[in-house]
Write a structure and sequence with these properties.
alpha/beta, six-stranded mixed sheet, about 20% strand, binds beta-D-glucopyranose
Length: about 750
């Protein structure tokens, strides 16, 4: 509907009607106003399937939802590194929404996996903002191509479940921009979501729902978002201020109380009625965007979508270890051990939980290939070993030639609403793996979890397949990969540290009381481990294949460039094995030298390609200013520092296979305010300032005579002298120059230096 038509409808609404429109009619609907022909519009969880509650509604899945299809969760879809595939998943979800009359699906959930133990990590994509933003953008584009809206969530800095409704995420500006905002920025700019869901938590003390800075200045004015912002369910704390900040729709309803506050504030002159009008216009714009593109005859074929879920799952699993045991030989005696072979854990608990019409476990799927023996091994409702189950598992393992263990994290450990307390698997499952290794040398572990776990047994097993929580058809995909029908092509969208304590947020997670200090700053995930050169279990971007890929011919189209130019990068990738396979080509940028702390490598692009044996493909990337920039807090903008940058192609952040460098000119001069306390080195390192200061600095005390071998020179080595001079504040020159430098000279210098900022 045209903006003018919407404005016209709003002009006919009473203040009460408009206030009412700013909150839900119930758990899942926006208000209808019959008098004006405004229809109600349904929203529904999300993100990886429909959790449509027909009758009794609640937000954490206590009451049943309709039978639906569960696709791989965010943790898994990110591992596919395949934008096209996730876009296809989005299209499929849109068709389901159309068939069910749902205008907006509540996802993607895309918070950064700051800590491996965040309870909702299974829904989230990555520790890296580029991956999170790209995968979210792909899902959004897919869903919205079917004229159904999305709601990237939870905006912003909602990276834990502990006290999620009261805690304050205390994040500095650069970190917010480079990590937490960046993920949403990529998604919003690429996908243009119809709505955004603002989170429960506070940010630096202020509720996210009340932040004009994030909801309006950045989201709308900088990034061009033009839909409506809705609250997470119950994330309304100060309705009038939130409306002013740009939080348009309260979900669900608050029994009319908050609407009444809006009316009162307008009547008392504390809230301009135009603010209410704008919010209603935004909501109606989306209501009609769906309404006018409804497809009431859409057919939801659950079997076809189950097959689609299986196809997606094939690309979401990451082969972490393989000493040659995989792919399995169906002629061998194989034992499937572990509850998750029969009843897989393929999704997490909470608002994303799907009531599945059909589930395929590995035990069902393997029946088409060969006969295996099965033993349950453990009960995932407890961490205590069941001795009878253990005995049965050990017999099955002993009698087989290969034992495949289907283990992972149960719902009692990993779910919405609480965080994990450590990175361990339940004790009964760890014991099972260890005991099976004692009786069987060919052990393959298939993991079902939404985030990293510790693997104390890693050296004793022959193979590990990270299946993540890959949806209702996970068993089919697992069997296809285990037996080699499908070549695994997932890569880790997050680092697996050796132990929880290695994680950069460990000391600050989940905070003290309501205060959560993101003290690790920008050093989240691999940005930290790589900079620390810390051993990890599996690095970011890692994953094996049944074939091998070789890289050659890395080319940059320039050797030097302005920050405003673009750089074209190409690299050849060849499948040098004897099976077709998919490779994730990862491009990292490394700033060789910088005045600010920067990660060693930052992922700036990736591409997934398929190659037949012997085939070579050229992969092209285009990098712009942002690929080289960091967020500068003096100019409050992205800035490129002049110098050499390495363009690196890697199999993971730790396995760089080729690199070329490019010289990039600075994107501008960062203004510096000089005072008498500015250090000599700060002036020397600022070329423009140094030029001006040379006549003042050209005095004996600032030069080091490296050939002097007198006793005094021994006491003060040139290195030491140089350091002392570098760190000397300008005013110090008065004390050491024996009258050659006067206060008047220094004041004149400072004035000249500061004139550079004009
Ligand atoms: C969750 C959201 C969800 C909403 C509605 C909230 O508790 O945080 O992700 O969309 O409930 O179920």
């Amino acid at each position: 509907m045209k903006k003018e038509q919407i404005k016209e409808i709003v002009s006919r609404m009473t203040l009460e009607e408009k206030a009412c429109m700013c909150s839900g009619a119930d758990f899942w609907h926006t208000e209808a106003i019959e008098r004006l022909g405004i229809p109600a519009s349904m929203v529904s969880d999300g993100p990886h399937g429909l959790r449509k509650q027909d009758d009794k509604a609640d937000h954490l899945g206590v009451n049943e939802s309709i039978k639906a299809v569960c696709f791989p969760a965010g943790c898994a879809t990110a591992a596919s590194f395949n934008r096209d595939l996730i876009q296809e998943m989005g299209k499929t979800l849109a068709n389901e929404c159309q068939a069910e009359g749902i205008s907006v699906i509540l996802g993607p959930a895309m918070n950064i996996k700051r800590s491996p133990v965040c309870g909702r990590n299974f829904e989230y994509y990555s520790e890296d903002p580029y991956v999170a933003g790209q995968m979210a953008g792909a899902l959004i584009a897919g869903v919205q191509s079917g004229n159904v809206g999305t709601s990237p969530k939870h905006f912003l800095a909602n990276n834990q479940e502990t006290r999620r409704m009261t805690c304050s995420s205390n994040v500095d500006e650069r970190t917010m921009r480079e990590i937490y905002l960046a993920a949403f920025e990529y998604a919003v700019k690429q996908g243009k979501p119809w709505t955004v869901m603002s989170s429960y938590n506070r940010i630096n003390g202020k509720h996210a729902t009340e932040s004009k800075e994030y909801l309006t200045d950045i989201l709308r004015d900088e990034w061009g978002f033009d839909g409506y912002v809705m609250s997470d369910w119950g994330a309304v704390f100060n309705r009038v201020e939130e409306l002013k900040a740009g939080m348009d729709l309260e979900m669900p309803a608050s029994g009319g109380d908050n609407d009444a506050l809006i009316v009162k504030a307008v009547r008392e002159g504390r809230l301009d009625e135009s603010v209410v009008d704008t919010a209603v216009e935004r909501i109606l714009d989306i209501v009609y965007r769906f309404e006018e593109n409804k497809k009431p005859d859409a057919v939801w074929d659950k079997d076809a979508d189950h097959e689609m879920a299986a196809k997606i799952a094939q690309e979401t699993m990451v082969l972490l270890k393989n000493d040659g045991v995989l792919p399995l030989d169906s002629g061998k005696k194989i034992a499937f051990i572990g509850q998750y072979a029969k009843k897989p854990r393929f999704q997490g608990g909470g608002s994303s939980h799907i009531n599945c019409a059909k589930v395929t476990g590995a035990l069902d799927a393997v029946a088409d290939i060969c006969q295996v023996t099965y033993a349950q091994g453990f009960d995932d409702r407890t961490e205590t070993t069941d001795e009878a189950m253990m005995a049965e598992a050990l017999t099955a393992a002993k009698e087989a030639e290969v034992a495949v263990l289907f283990v992972g994290l149960p719902d009692i450990i990993e779910s919405e609403s609480f965080d994990r307390s450590d990175m361990k698997m339940p004790a009964n499952q760890t014991t099972l793996i260890e005991k099976v290794c004692e009786v069987q040398k060919n052990v393959v572990v298939v993991l079902h979890n939404g985030a990293p776990i510790e693997m104390p047994w890693i050296d004793r097993v022959s193979g590990v397949l990270e299946a993540y929580l890959s949806g209702e058809a996970c068993g089919a995909a697992e069997v296809d990969i285990l037996f080699g029908k499908v070549n695994p092509s997932g890569r880790l969208p997050e680092t697996f540290p050796i132990k929880y304590e290695d994680n950069p947020s460990y000391l600050y997670f989940p905070g003290e009381g309501n205060e959560v200090n993101y003290a690790e700053g920008i050093f989240v995930g691999y940005r930290y481990y790589d900079r620390k050169k810390m051993d990890v279990l599996f690095p970011f971007g890692y994953g094996l294949s049944y074939t091998e890929f070789a890289y050659s011919n890395l080319k940059l189209d320039k050797k030097s460039m302005k920050a405003s130019d673009t750089l074209s990068v190409s690299v050849d990738v060849t499948n040098i094995g004897d099976r077709a396979g998919k490779e994730v080509v990862q491009l990292y940028v490394n700033d060789v030298e910088s005045h600010v702390l920067r990660p060693v490598n930052e992922l700036r692009d990736f591409a997934k390609i398929e190659l037949a044996p012997g085939e070579t493909k050229t992969v092209n990337f285009t990098l712009d200013k942002r690929a080289f920039a960091y967020f500068n807090t003096t100019i409050h903008d992205w800035h490129v520092e002049e110098g050499e940058f390495n363009i690196r192609i890697g199999r993971s952040s730790r396995d760089i296979v080729c690199e070329e460098s490019v010289y990039v000119e600075a994107s501008g001069r960062i203004p510096v305010t000089y005072t008498l306390d500015s250090a000599v080195m700060d002036i020397r390192e600022d070329p423009a300032a140094y030029e001006l200061a040379k006549p003042y600095l050209n005095i004996d005390i600032l030069t080091v005579d490296e050939s002097d071998d007198s006793a005094s020179a021994e006491a003060m080595s040139p290195v030491m002298m140089k350091a002392m001079i570098d760190y000397l504040p300008l005013r110090g020159m008065m004390s050491f120059s024996q009258g050659k430098v006067t206060l008047a000279m220094l004041e004149e210098l400072v004035e000249k230096l500061n004139s550079l900022n004009k």
